[in-house]
Design goal:
heterodimer; A: mainly alpha; B: mainly alpha; 0% strand; globular; ABC transporter permease (chain B); heme binding (chain B); cytochrome c-type biogenesis (chain B); transmembrane helix (chain B); transmembrane (chain B)
């Protein structure tokens, strides 16, 4: 709990400072417990292994679809935990110390980092178990980073809402999946360029849409989270 | 009685819309045939849905600025009526698509994204049901409602205009402009917008009265 004590000593610190400290706290907790990390790791490996047992090495279109479905469930599982580990007492403690905006910013940054690592692990697992149909690996890495960021931003906001509604996991699915759908559709069509050499006319537009969606979600989280936290 | 003239107006206009809409002469173009009459029922549903969702999000914003539960009742009533009109719009649209595009569910982006937007709003209604504490329900669902509205506009209005779609007004198809819509059809279409919107507001006021009765111990 060094980080929290550290936080205590800096009550008048700036928003940026608070955010960085909270991110450090989350990383420290994760490094100590390693609960979320290994839990998700096991989840990824077993999911991909099951797919391998069922269909062996799929062709690139199915590979792409399966990859994004795995990513979706990994992000739901990884990020739903981000508010569950905070019990009421600790949340109240944070509430008295930091501005809610710093708190949500810290959660967003931490989840982006977590999701970036998870995306790479999923990619490695998929390549190991399901074969490697990717031609343009750097492009695909970029796309999964973009996808990881978008997924984690969205699910952080939804987890914050679900956390207020008695940590209801089913609620997270109900709220999250319709929003997820267009995002995943865009991601899988952006990713297509890394499997086959093909000219996709609307590609820059799709990147623009993804980017603006991310900006929209960040802005909404920043504006709306303080209202969620007034308990 | 003076307060209720618009309800009579709604009934009159809708009677006119339905009778004229099914009987008057319309241009028969290609695969559209007589199904163009769907215009008087399909498009106004979306106008009503957007009206209701706009009322809903404005009341959610007002709730968050003052924490007045009456505003939450307005927001939830408008959300419910909006979903109802959205479902009607989707139903009339799929009916039209069945005969004009040859399939009830095409992979048309506007159709798919509208279904997604409706699911998001249904999630709003489910979210409301899942929280029993009234103040907490109001606060959290207001936040989600604003979130949903911010996604509704790009999903149903911006993205379908940027990509290829079977709907008019997308990247590759011409939009409905006042200059290329038949004059005869405009005579019914514009009153239809007003009539259906008035009806949606009427339903909305009834739902609001019901919600307020439910909570009358709190409002007093």
């Amino acid at each position: 709990m060094h980080a929290i004590h550290y936080l205590c000593g800096n009550m008048k610190s700036t928003a940026l400072h608070q955010t960085i400290t909270l991110v450090k706290k989350d990383i420290l907790l994760e490094l100590r417990q390693k609960y979320a990390f290994y839990g998700i790791l096991l989840y990824i490996v077993s999911t991909v292994f099951v797919i391998n047992l069922m269909i062996g090495k799929p062709e690139e279109k199915i590979w792409n679809a399966l990859f994004w479905v795995v990513q979706l469930f990994v992000s739901v599982n990884a990020i739903a935990k981000s508010f569950m580990q905070e019990n009421r007492g600790r949340l109240l403690y944070f509430y008295s110390l930091v501005h809610p905006r710093s708190f949500i910013a810290a959660k967003l940054i931490y989840n982006i980092l977590l999701m970036a690592i998870m995306s790479i692990i999923t990619l490695v697992c998929c390549v190991m178990f399901l074969g490697n149909p990717i031609i343009n690996i750097w492009y695909f890495l970029g796309v999964i980073m973009l996808g990881g960021i978008s997924l984690s931003l969205l699910f952080t906001m939804l987890a914050a809402i679900a956390a207020q509604a008695n940590q209801n996991a089913a609620l997270m699915a109900i709220m999250g999946f319709p929003i997820m759908l267009p995002l995943l559709m865009m991601l899988s069509s952006i990713a297509r360029s890394s499997f086959i050499i093909v000219y996709q006319p609307g590609l820059p537009k799709l990147f623009l849409m993804m980017g603006s969606m991310d900006v929209l979600i960040i802005a909404l989280s920043m504006v709306l989270f303080p209202f969620l936290w007034k308990d | 009685m003076a307060k209720h003239w618009w309800k009579a107006l709604a009934v009159l206009i809708l009677t006119y819309t339905i009778i004229a809409g099914f009987t008057h002469k319309i241009p028969i173009i290609g695969t559209n045939g007589q199904s163009s009459r769907g215009l008087y029922f399909h498009v106004p549903m979306w106008v009503c849905m957007y009206t209701m969702f706009t009322i809903s999000v404005i009341n959610s914003l007002r709730y968050l600025s003052g924490y007045d539960l009456r505003k939450d009742a307005l927001a939830s009533a408008a959300g419910g009526v909006g979903v109802f009109y959205g479902v009607l719009g989707f139903a009339t649209g799929t009916l039209w698509a069945t005969y004009t595009w040859g399939s009830t569910f095409t992979s048309d982006p506007k159709q798919m994204l509208t279904a997604v937007a409706l699911l998001i709003y249904m999630a709003y209604l489910v979210l409301r049901m899942s929280i029993s504490d009234i103040d907490k329900r109001a606060r959290i669902s207001a936040v989600f409602n604003i979130f949903a509205f911010a996604l509704l506009i790009p999903l149903t209005y911006i993205i379908p205009r940027m990509v290829d779609s079977l709907h008019p007004g997308s990247a590759s198809t011409p939009g409905f402009a006042s200059k290329d819509t038949d004059n005869n059809m405009k005579m019914v279409l514009y009153p239809a917008f007003i009539g259906w919107t008035l009806l949606s507001v009427w339903i909305f006021t009834l739902v609001v009265r019901y919600k307020k009765l439910e909570l009358k111990n709190i409002f007093k």
